[in-house]
TrEMBL record:
InterPro entries, per the entry: CobQ/CobB/MinD/ParA_Nub-bd_dom (IPR002586), DNA_Partitioning_ATPase (IPR050678), P-loop_NTPase (IPR027417)
Matching PANTHER family: COBQ_COBB_MIND_PARA NUCLEOTIDE BINDING DOMAIN-CONTAINING PROTEIN (PTHR13696:SF96), P-LOOP CONTAINING NUCLEOSIDE TRIPHOSPHATE HYDROLASE (PTHR13696)
Native source species: Arenicella xantha
Source superkingdom: Bacteria
CobQ/CobB/MinD/ParA nucleotide binding domain residues: 4-179
Protein's UniProt name: Chromosome partitioning protein
CDD domains assigned: ParAB_family
């Protein structure tokens, strides 16, 4: 089983959006997938509750209620981490996973928080779980904005790989409201969104991105 943690102590940076859409990608391809919601708001669990029965199933777990028991054939497990999680707790979670995704939005506040978090966590991870890989994703971006250029320069200067970008698209809002992911929507509508996910998924699956 390959496990993925989506984490950033800054709220509103799109952790649940990335976690739920990644879960649907694996589900669409027929992989037994689990989604663990570690956030007290339980947004990922709310999303699963409105998920159409016609879509492939995703196992949902309230990670605040104790031990998690996925099905024996589970192939992918995704953890949606809450905001305001301290570094020690995150380091403990990272010990349990294979991949860590850190979403960052194009704002000065988000970039400062991300820089501090990454500086704090990288040394802990390298000491406690050397096999875990970490990467940053530019989230809710607009490529024609100056903030996007500033964000890319910032991410490329970090001590972890810059994996890819996800644009600011209303398709993610619709997906969140209806319990689906963009991989389950009409291809003609979301083709550009899906294209952005290719390098991210390739990296998560082991095709590493060089800085």
């Amino acid at each position: 089983m390959r496990s993925i943690l989506v984490v950033n102590p800054k709220g509103g940076c799109g952790k649940t959006t990335i976690a739920t859409n990644l879960a649907t990608y694996y589900s669409v391809w027929g992989m037994s997938t689990g989604l663990v919601d570690l956030d007290p708001q339980q947004s990922a669990m709310d999303w699963l509750r409105v998920r159409p029965k016609s879509e492939n199933p995703i196992q949902g777990f309230n990670g605040l209620k104790g031990k998690i028991y996925p099905k024996p054939d589970t192939e992918r497990m995704i953890y949606d981490c809450p905001a305001r999680t301290n570094t020690a707790k995150v380091a403990s979670l990272i010990k349990q996973v294979d991949v860590v995704i850190i979403p960052v939005m194009p704002s000065a506040i988000d970039m400062r928080v991300a820089a501090k978090f990454i500086a704090d966590i990288v040394s802990r991870v390298r000491k406690s779980n050397q096999h875990a890989v970490m990467g940053v994703v530019a989230n809710r971006t607009q490529k024609n904005y100056q903030s996007y250029t500033a964000l890319l320069s910032f991410l490329k200067a970090l001590d972890v790989p810059f994996v890819g970008t996800i644009r600011n698209s209303q398709h993610y809002v619709k997906a969140a409201d209806t319990g689906v992911g963009i991989f389950e929507m009409e291809l003609a509508d979301v083709k550009a969104d899906m294209k952005e996910w290719e390098p991210i998924i390739n990296w998560v699956e082991g095709k590493r991105v060089l800085k």
